[in-house]
Amino acid sequence: IQFNSIQFNSIQLLITRLTGHKMQHPPQRNMRRIVGTGTICLVLLTLDVPRVCNSFPVSSSILHTRSVSARSSFPTEAPGVLISSHQQPPNTNTNANTNVNTNTNSKICLFSVRPNSSDFLNIFTGDVPLLDVRADVEFTKGAFPTSVNIPILDDEQRRLVGTCYKEQGPEAAFDMGRDLMNPEIQAQRIHDWTNFIEAHPNGFLYCFRGGSRSNIAQQELKKVGIDFPLVEGGYKAMRTFLIEDLEKSIKELPMVMIGGRTGSGKTHLLKRLPRHVDLEGLANHRGSTFGRLVDEETTQINFENSLAIEFLQLRNAGPRDTVFIEEEGNRIGRRTLPVSMYHAMVEHLPTLILDTPIEERVRTCVQDYVTDLFPLFESAYKENAHEIFRKRHLDGIDRIKKRLGGKRHGLIHHQVSAALDLFESSGDTSGFYEPTETVLREYYDPMYDYQSNKQRKGPVLFQGDAESLIDWAEKNAGKFLH
């Protein structure tokens, strides 16, 4: 019997589903036949099924069919697993415990019969795993949170196929793409794709348009007995769906902003509320001059995709209770909020104002931007961590030099530099407190007051400390619709 690891593991799970009991590992491995309605259903090798069930994740949506005829044509729209035989055994009434001739010339062919899909709503609300076969440069520019990139072609090969597509059409591009996959590349790709499918049997694959590259990947997988569905329309169709749906979410979701001065602890409070979207988390930036983290900021496309998906999931999760977001400017780091969303934040979204004493705000800033942040620098930059950490902070002070004025900038720059020296030599963060308070009082607070008084037109629903604000929000979360 010939089958690959996906077929081997899935067969054992299917047998448990078909027979209704767990099969035990016999003293000697032998061949068994399970007979169902119609003609022969399966020929299998019994093993320790419970062990496989615990270690091999297969979505229940795949294993629905209880019996399959080898001669029948399986409906493409039905969920299930099809197992066929190249040589049909004699038509007998052999029961499930009868031994089978081990010399039978059989080949087990197992594949998912899930069809290709354009059901973007379920793909994104269900966090379905996605196999992205586009080139690395395309994936880096924009993808989806559940995507894994295993490209069928490298960046240069992708450029050649794209040119061929424009000049000669899809058939010529398909042939070129297939020819560019030499045997070594082909074997590695199939190995990597198979590993992904083993881990995510309920997933889909996609390329840019759901065309040449997706079809090549499907054909190569079929050669090893795997039928893995693709997303119709590919990345382009999914991206269009999300952008259109994002506008719908902004109009339909009842949103309330958490406002307050820099260092108030808005992000910490936001994460304690049940239905929230962390815009700074999606952007991978804390939203201030000093808010850049160790990892690169999310790309603009990925920021928009992730935001659209979070809103979509909240909109389809049940009752339309309030969704809390943090009050932001039109930019978070280098990422830009959707125009319609920023317009809603300025023109009509209501706000809850978090009041926090200046001493606590200073402590929060030092905790967030020094104590908690530096270990990430150590992990990423090793022996160069302090040097890069110093440059990041002093560059931040320099970026607000014009607003601070030359004399005040020089004083704060000197204080932060001394604080960094003390921190490097002893781990003491106390040197950051004085310059942090100065920056809060003389730079961030005036800017926040101006924006709140002149630009925000929505109502203030409540103002108070963290605990009273959370209590008020939980009691009133279902009341705000717009």
The end-to-end distance, rounded to whole angstroms, is 63 Å
Mean pLDDT: 80
Largest β-sheet summary: 5 strands, parallel
Strand content: 5-15%
The portion of residues assigned to helices is 40-55%
User: How many beta strands in the DSSP annotation?
Assistant: 14
**Total tally of structural domains:** 3
Organism: Chaetoceros debilis
Domain Rhodanese: 124-247
Pfam family, one: Rhodanese
Protein name: Rhodanese domain-containing protein
What keyword list fits this structure?
3 domains; 14 strands; 5-stranded parallel sheet; Oxidized Rhodanese, domain 1; 3-stranded parallel sheet; 482 residues; alpha/beta
Provide a compact summary of the structure:
The protein is built from 20 helices and 14 strands. The chain has 482 residues and is of the alpha/beta class.
Describe this structure in words.
The protein is α/β, with parallel strands linked by helices. The chain has three domains: 5-112, no CATH class; 120-240, 3-Layer(aba) Sandwich (Oxidized Rhodanese, domain 1); 253-482. 49% of the residues lie in helices and 10% in strands. The chain contains 20 helices and 14 strands. It has helices at residues 5-19, 49-55, 120-125, 136-141, 155-168, 170-180, 183-199, 212-222, 234-252, 266-270, 279-283, 300-315, 339-347, 358-371, 374-381, 385-399, 401-404, 406-426, 433-454, 466-476, and strands at residues 31-34, 42-45, 81-84, 109-112, 130-132, 147-149, 204-206, 255-259, 276-277, 323-326, 331-332, 335-336, 351-354, 460-464. The strands form five sheets. A five-stranded parallel β-sheet has the order 9-10-8-13-14, with helices on both faces. β11 and β12 (335-336) form a beta hairpin. The chain is globular and about 70 Å long. The termini are far apart. The model is unreliable at 23-112 (pLDDT under 50).
